[in-house]
Amino acid sequence: MRTVPDRHRVWLMKELPLLENEGLLSPETSGRLRAYYETDTRSGTHWAIIACAILGSLLIGAGIILLFAHNWEALSRPARALLSLCPLALGAGLSLTALQNGRGTAWRESAGLFHALAVGASIALIGQTYHLPSDVPAFLLSWALLIAPLMFVLRSTGTSLIYLALLCGWCFAAQRTSGQAAAFWLLILPPAARFAHLARTDRYALHTALSFAGLLAALCLCTGLAFERTVPGLWIVAYSALLSGAGLLGLWLYGDREGWNNLPKTFGTLGTVILAYLFTWSDMWQGIGWDHMRDDWQYRAWGIWLDSGITLALLTGWLLAVRKAFRRESIETLTLAVFPVIATLCFATGSMADRAHGLNALVFNAFMLFLGVMHMVLGCRRNRLRQLNLGMATASLLLVTRFFDTDFAYWIRGLVFIALGTVFLTVNLFMARRKRQKGVAA
Amino acid sequence: MKRPGTLILALLIAVQFGAVLTLIRSREHILNAGDAFRFKTRPIDPADPFQGRYVSLGFEDDYIPVPNIQATGLRYREPIYARIESDAEGFARFTAWSRERPKTGAYLKTRYLGERGHWDADGRRSASLGLHVDMPFNRFYMEEAKAPRAEAAVREATRSTNCWAVVRILNGKAVVEDVVAKGISLRDLSAQK
User: Fold this and answer.
1) Where in chain A are the domains?
2) Does A193 touch chain B if contact means CB atoms closer than 8 Å?
3) CA-to-CA separations, A187 to A168, A285, B5, in angstroms, rounded
C-alpha cells in the first residue's frame, strides 16, 4: 500500500469536485480516484513526529545510562545485578508492543532506539557491578551483535545507525589496542543487506537515504581503520574505488537528482574532490608500494592479503557500478568512472619509480582543475547554483593552495584573492538573476 | 507476517537476557568459589562515560620473573597462563608462565605485554624484571562522589601502609572483590573522609 501524506490527500479531495464541475474529469474517473486514495493508500507519519519520538527515546535511554553510571552503592550486589536487567526488560517490552500492535514508524523507531540503548546500559551496569576491566572493543562488539537483528525485526533505521556507529567505534578501539578489525567486512553485511532491500522496495524514502548515508559514512571511516597498512599507499586505490563507486551507484539509483535527493552521488562527488585535492600533494606519493612494505611487530604477515583483498573487492564493486551507471554522453559519469583508473595508474608508477611522485602530483593538479572547470560549466549549463559553486570552490582551493606553495609576493597573492572573490560573487549574482528570470518566465 | 517477526524478536530478547545473565552467573561463581589473593596496588581516579566513576588500579607486581625473555618466543598480546603464589607477607606474585592451561594450582589467564623494566639506581641503567602481563582487573567502580575522595584517602594511606586489591580467581578468571587501604575497605575509607 502506498504512503501518501494527509495534506496531499485532503488537497486532492477538495480538488476533485472542482475538476468535475469544470468538466476535466468524468464523475466515474473522479469516483475511482476518490476510492483509490481512500482505500488503497495510507497516510505516512510526519517526519517531525518521528524525529520527536526518536529524540525522546534517545534522551530517556541516555538518562538511564547516566542514572546507572552514578553507581548506587547503597544497594547490594545482587540487587544491582537484578536492576541491570530492568532497562533491557523495558526495551524488550517496548519492542514487543511496537511489533505486536503493528504500530507506526514513530513507535518502531523509538522502541528500537530505546531497546538498542538499553542493551548497552545493561552490559555496562553488569561491568560496573562486577568491576570488569576496561575492554572497549569487547564491550562495543557484544553490544553491536546483540542489537543487530533489531534493525530487521522492527524495520528501524535508527537501530541500524546505532549499529553502524558501534561498528565504527569497535573498529577504532580494536585497531588502537593492537587488535584487528578485519571482521568489519562481515559485520557490515547486515546493514548492507537491509539497504539493498530498501533500495529495491522504497528507493526514494527518507529512511532509505538515511540508511545509505550511514552505510557510506561507516564504509568510508572503517576502510582506513580496518586496513593493516602493510603496503603503504594501497589506500589510494581502495578509497578512490569506494568514493567513485558510491557516486556511480547514486547516478544509477537516483539518476540526475542532486543534493539530499541523491546522497550517494553527492558523497561520491565531494569525496572525489577531497581525494583529488589530497593527491595534489607530492608527499602523498612518496614511499608507497610493495618496495616499502612494513614488517615490524605491529604488522601482521597476512596484512598484505587482507589489504589487497579489500582493495580488490572495492575495485570489483566499482566495476559493477561502472557497468550499471556508465553513460558515454555524461561527462560527470565519465569523470567519476575514470578517477580510480588514474589513481591506480599513479599508484603503480609511484610504486615502480621513486621519482614519480612529482609527476603524480602534477597529474592530480590537472585533474582537480578539470573537475573545477567541469562543475562550473555544468552548473552554468544546467542553471544549478550549487554545482557552479562546487566548481568554483574546487578550482579556487587548488589555486589558493598552489599559491601558498610558491614564492609569489604578498601583493600578487592579495590581488589574486580579490579577483577570485569577485568572480565568485559576480557569477553567483548573475546565476541568481538568471534563475529568477527563468522562474518568472515559467 | 506478524507472527514470525514476534517469534524472532522473542528469540532475540531471550539471547540478550541470556548473554547478560551468563555474565552475572560467571562473575558470581568466581566470587563465591574462587581463591582470594591480595595484589599490591596504587589506585587513581578516572571516569567512564558509560559505567561512571571508578578507581583505576595500578599494580606493582604485574610481571613474571623470567631471565631471558627472547628465549620465550612470545608475541605481543599473546594469551598465556600465569601461575600465582602468595609470598610471606600474604601478597600475590606471579611465579611462572605457560602457554597451556595449568592442571593444578592457582593461575590467571592473561596476555603478554612485552618486557617489564625498572631503573636500577645503583647500576645507573634499566634492568629487566621479566614478562609484563595484562592485569584483567584494573577497575574498581565507586559512587561518583566517593571515587575522588577514595583516591585522596589511598594517597594518604599508601605513605605509611600498604594498599591492596582483594581479587577472587577461579579457572584463570578474576573478579575484584574489594580494595583495602589501612586495613579498611576503600568504600568505608572514602565514607569517613
Assistant:
1) 1-44, 239-442
2) no
3) 11, 32, 22
